[in-house]
Each structure stands twice: as C-alpha cells, then as structure tokens.
Automatic annotation (TrEMBL), chains A, B:
One Gene Ontology term of the molecular function aspect: D-serine ammonia-lyase activity
GO biological process: D-serine catabolic process
Keywords: Lyase
Protein name stated in the entry: Alanine racemase
Length: 402, 402
C-alpha cells in the first residue's frame, strides 16, 4: 500500500488529490510497525510549533506552552528551541518531571489547596534552579501556598486565576474575591505574578467567529480586573491567557503578556470541526489494524483504551464519532462509530477493506490519547523512532513525586 | 469527617440510614491520603469475587475471569483462590503479564491477525508452563495462528468466536464461516477448543429483563452453532460465554461450560443503572478533593484523565453524567456533570461544601478508570495498602512483550 494506491472508494464526492493528500495522515513507514500505535508526523509537529511561536512573537507575547498535551521532554525541547519562554503543567506530577529536567519557569495552572505538594514542588524547584509559578482562586488555596512556601523555606510566585467564562476554576471577575486575594498576596511573603485565565469554553464556541468572541471577552475581562486592582493600588505584573482555539483565532494581544496553549502541537478532529485548522495540520494519528469485519463495521484494534471516549475537550462533544479513519485504499475517511475497550468499530459505508489492513485514525482529542499511550512513535521522512512520554502518572507514582 | 458526620444536605428525599450507609463508598482511612486516588474496598471486592464464583459453581461452569478490568495479579490471585479456573485477557500485553506470573490457561479473547504476537505468546507460555487459548473469526486470523504456532514450534488452542448480537467480532451464526473455520481447524495442527462469545450488548439492554433476554439468545445461538457443527461431524469441546450483566442476570447454563465475566470484581454505575447490583456492591471509587467552587459547581481534582469520559461499556452511554459523587457531609450523591482533563465539575445542587473537602466518586466504568490509574489503594478496615496494576500498556512496552 502506498499513497498512490488505487482509489477503490465508490461513493461520496471525490476530494481533489492535493487536498486529499494533505488531509491524510502520514502513512510512510507506519505499515511495518505493530498496532495500535500513536504516531506523530515530525514535519507537521515542527510546523505547528513554528506557527504558534510566530503568533506569540508577532503578537509580542511570551509563549509558555502547556505540556499536558504531549508530556514529552523532547517535544518541550523543540518548543523551547523555537522560542518558548517556559512551560505550563496541569498536575503536580507533570510539573515535577519538567522541573527535574530543568525547564523554567514551570507554571502549574491548577489550584493546589494543600501545603504538602506546594512544599515538595518548591523544594524540588530549588534543587534544580527552576522557578515554579502557582495559581490561586480561593483563600484556602492561598493559605496552602503560604504554608507550603513556609515549609519549604521559600517564597512562591502566584497568579490569581480569573474565571473568564468556562465557569470551572477562577475568581468571579465581578466579585470582590480577586481583590481580597491580591491584597492578601501583597501582604504575604508570596510574590504576586498577575492574572491568569483559560477560556476553555472556546472549544464549545462552534466556529471561528464564536472563538474570536470568546478570546475578546477573555482579554476584556482580564484587563477590567487589572484596572480594578490598579484602582485599589495593586500593580498587576503579568496577564496570561490560554486555550489553543482562542490563540489561533485571535484578534490581537493588546495588554496581554503571555499565552499558554497546549493542544496546538498536535491538533485533532475537535480543532478541525471548530474550523481553526485543516486536517493537513494534524500531526498525531493512531495506527490500527482491521482485526475483524462484518456487514456494517470494520473492527480495529484501537478502542477506548487507545483513542479514549472523549468527544472533545471540556465535555464539548460533537456527536460525530470517536475519530476519523483513513486508509491508503480509500478516497475518503470513515467514522469510528463505537468503542469497546480494545476494539473500535469503523462504519464501512460500502467500502471493502480486508482483515489485516491498516487504518490511520485522527482522534477527537489528542491530549487524552497521549495520556493513554505507552509511548509515541515519531515518523520522519519514512524513519520511525520512539518518542518517550515522560510525565505520566505512573512515572510520577514510581518516583514518589508530588 | 466520619460516616457519622452530621448531614447538612437540605434538598432531596432522605434515604433510610441503612440504605444510605450501604450505598456510600467506604470512607474509612481515605481522608489521610492524597488525591486523586482510586480506592478499592477490600470487603466488597471479596464479596463480589465470592458471589460470581458461587454463580459459576452453582451453575456447574468453570470461571475464567476477565482481567482487563483490574490488570492486577493480586486480584487475579484472589479469584484463583476462590476457585477460578484460569484468566481471560483482551490484549497480548495483558496476556503476557499473566503468563509470566504462571496463571493458566490464559484465554486471549481478542482475534490476532498477524503471526508474530501469536508466536511470542506461545513461546512465552511454553517457557512458563502455561496454556494459552486464542480465538479466531476469520480465515486470515486462523492463518496467522497457524503461522505463529509453526514459528513457535507448537500447537495452539483456538476457539471460534461467534457473534451473538454485539456485532463486533465473531462469525455470523447464520453464515457458513464458522463451519469452514472449524473444518480448517480440524485439518490443521491447531487444537479446536470450541465456541466462544461475548454478549456485550447486555450493557445496552436497559434493565434486568432485557439482559435475561440477551443471555438467553447468546446461549441459544451457541447451542445452535454447536448443533450445526455436529451435523458436519465436528465435536465442540467447550462453549464459553462472557459479560458480567448476562451472568448476574442468568437463567441457567444448560449446555454452557465456562463463563468469562470481568467487571464484577468492582462493578460501577453502569451496573447500578442496569439494575444488576445496588451501590453497596460497588467496590471501587475515586477519592477527589474540592479544589475550587463557584455558584453551580464544585471543581474536583479528578477529570477525564482519572475518571475517563466513558458513559458506559461499548459506547452504551446513559447521559447521566460521568460519575456519582458522595460526601460524608451530605445525605445524597451529587453528579459529575462535566470533565476537563484534570478537573471534574460536580453540580452543587444547593449543597455547601468547602474547598479542601473530599468526595468519593463512583465512576461509570471501572475498567477504564483502572487503566488510567498509576496504582490502586486497597482499604481494608481503615488500613490502606497499595495494590499494583501489573498489566499496563506501559509495563508491556518496557518489557518489549508482544
């Protein structure tokens, strides 16, 4: 099978060869490898890294990429080489792995509410000459940071997290909590870094116009809170915003200092459905083998323990299946319609592939696919090489890290 | 906080204290441990193991429990001690871990279609004095088994997988494929073990009556295929059926030789919604901490990377959220309504818990929660001890196993 294999697909409007070729996952070299396997196309990965760095550089903001997407020291190294200013993590164990590897600063964009993990991360960061930045959105969290810093005999850098519409973590921008927290921070031994937000609701915005509106709201809310703090005599050193969709579909970064996107290194079908990229930007796919077939379905060896059951980020499911499956033999993708734990059911839609043939599947949500995988395989011009997933929960547990 | 803490819940009909106490996850000892954590109640686990063993023993069938649920050598040891006759796995890497530990036979209830993993498993099994049993539902699969066995210089035990209604893997019971495969098996160096099925559609049957109908159909189909093979002069040594729901809600095992349930060691909210058990049988829960809160939600430190996005087995989602959260402070459970990767959003429904408080969450699907966890923690009369998850993909990858 090659990219030039004859097209046996019979139904559906044929795509132009150029668009179709660009939309396909990179097949080259993957046929020889066992499945299921999570493959990353090196050229697309590097293009994605360069693209977001250009957005940051052109916009005059620092890029602190979120490593929860790849959990890989090698990919974070590529991001750093391209110009990233630090990394962002969403779990203390992830942060610990990147601190040990010397990435600095590490922003833990996740509120800790007990002193112990704070103290452990600060001690570890001190040992490795790394700066770690925390977030807080409650007095309980701030007290945990104070107690943790005291226990570690250090100060700690702290952002106040602001809810800009996801209604997950973050202080209500209209309430007085943010001001109270900032005043407490100013009076403490902790260092106030500024305001941080994550407009994750961009994943539910439906289209690029909707995402632009979310990004504009995020920026406006942060600048409003900054203004209010200034009126209380509190300077805001930094403003930090996140979410891949709201940064791809941005309308400028006036007043913003740094950005923290994660998903952009790989993108996935959620990004395609949102309209922020085409399939030719998807750098991650799952290689699977057809192990059985019946009238309606090909059964492949990638189920929910490989693809995950995610329909999209932040429970923003599209109802469009669990991934898009491509074959070198077909001129259109097929849909992964059901998942068991180790089996995926791909709708045949009139096609006729054999047991043993390969499919490459673009998943809905790349971040959770990486979290499930034992390792990644980098495909670079036909050569395959292993790409370690370093910051796993299991690595964390075995190292007895925070 | 203890089980006897005052009930501050204000709305909803109060459950009787007995039912409510039985339905709660075991809190004892968990408060001291870090979160998120997957905890297993030892007493409930052992009761579940004893219950399924009694179903098998009373029904005169052998129990070959599916270890994809727990991936734990220690729990499989409890199942063996209780009377299990072997184990079932759904991934070659899982099978390899249990072969190395000496469990026999290991049934790989998953069709392999390439010779290499077959040869590797047979060689490994030979080294460890273990019997391994395969399944096939296609000539491609049978050829892979023959080639793999030849490569390993061994014979191989093979079941023919029959589709009894899940329409995933398995030969169509009305087609001639099963007869052709059995004839080929008889003529080969492979050993024909019999017929094997998995009525996974029981998870979508809605209630106990529906499940009974699924189980009856499964049994009838297998016995019909056996009858047809006999008319072709082919003896069927064994019939093997699976799925926890169809075994809990069974109407007898006439003509069946062995059963392969998995989920029953833990059960989960899917089993509760199906009506096959009450919450007092749920032996697995996720311990989480409230890290933030807003008007509508408690935000906890267990997201899709801990609870999974599964709504139920085999894409049989209920739409009832991602888990049921219990607090020692409330007299009713709350619903996990949305998931980010590291955050769960639990609907407050008028309750007033503080940041830092713990919730115990019964997940929708225990098997995928274990697959995500770095380890399990066994709670036994207030004592906590680690419970290794041995057969992970990562363990498999690092051991370079099949």
């Amino acid at each position: 099978m090659s990219r030039r294999a004859k097209r046996t697909g019979s139904s559906g409007k044929a795509m132009s060869i150029t668009a179709e070729t660009a939309a396909r996952p990179a097949f080259e070299g993957v046929e020889r490898l066992e499945t299921p396997l999570v493959v990353v196309d090196a050229a697309r990965l590097k293009a994605n890294i360069a693209r977001m760095q250009a957005i940051a550089t052109d916009g005059g903001v620092a890029l602190h990429p979120h490593i929860k997407t790849h959990k890989s020291l090698a990919i974070a190294g590529l991001q750093r080489d391209a110009g990233a200013s630090g990394v962002t993590a969403s779990h203390p164990g992830e942060a610990a792995v990147f601190i040990r590897a010397g990435f600095s600063p590490v922003t833990l964009a996740y509120p800790l509410v007990r002193p112990e993990p704070v103290a452990r991360l600060l001690t570890l960061a001190g040992e490795h000459g790394v700066r770690v930045r925390f977030i807080a959105d409650s007095m309980t969290g701030l007290e945990a940071l104070e107690a943790g810093a005291a226990k570690a005999g250090q100060t700690a850098d702290v952002f106040i997290k602001v809810d800009v519409g996801l209604h997950r973590c973050g202080v209500d921008p209209l309430a007085e909590t943010g001001i109270a927290l900032a005043q407490r921070l100013e009076a403490s031994l902790l260092t106030f870094c500024g305001l941080l937000s994550h407009a994750g609701q961009a994943y539910g915005a439906g289209n690029v116009d909707g995402i632009r509106a979310v990004a504009a709201t995020e920026r406006r809310i942060l600048l409003d809170v900054r203004e209010r703090l200034l009126r209380h005599g509190i300077e805001v050193p930094l403003t930090s915003v996140g979410s891949t969709p709201s940064l791809i579909a941005n309308d400028g970064f006036d007043g913003i200092d740094e950005i923290r996107p994660g998903n952009y290194v790989f993108f996935d079908m959620t990004a395609v459905r949102l309209g922020i990229v085409g399939r030719e930007s998807l750098s991650l796919a799952v290689s699977a083998t057809i192990i059985s077939r019946n009238r309606d379905f090909y059964i492949v060896d990638a189920g929910s323990k490989t693809l995950s059951s995610d329909l999209g980020a932040h429970s923003t499911g599209s109802g469009a299946g669990f991934g898009e499956a491509w074959s070198a033999e077909l001129d259109r993708p097929l849909s992964v319609e059901k998942l068991s734990e180790e089996h995926g059911m791909v709708a045949r839609k009139g096609s006729d592939l054999e047991i043993g043939q390969r499919l490459l599947i673009y998943p809905n949500h790349a971040c959770v696919v990486v979290n499930l995988a034992p390792r990644l395989t980098l495909l670079d011009g036909g050569r395959a090489s292993p790409l370690a997933i370093d910051a796993t929960r299991r690595a964390d547990a075995s190292a007895n890290a925070p």
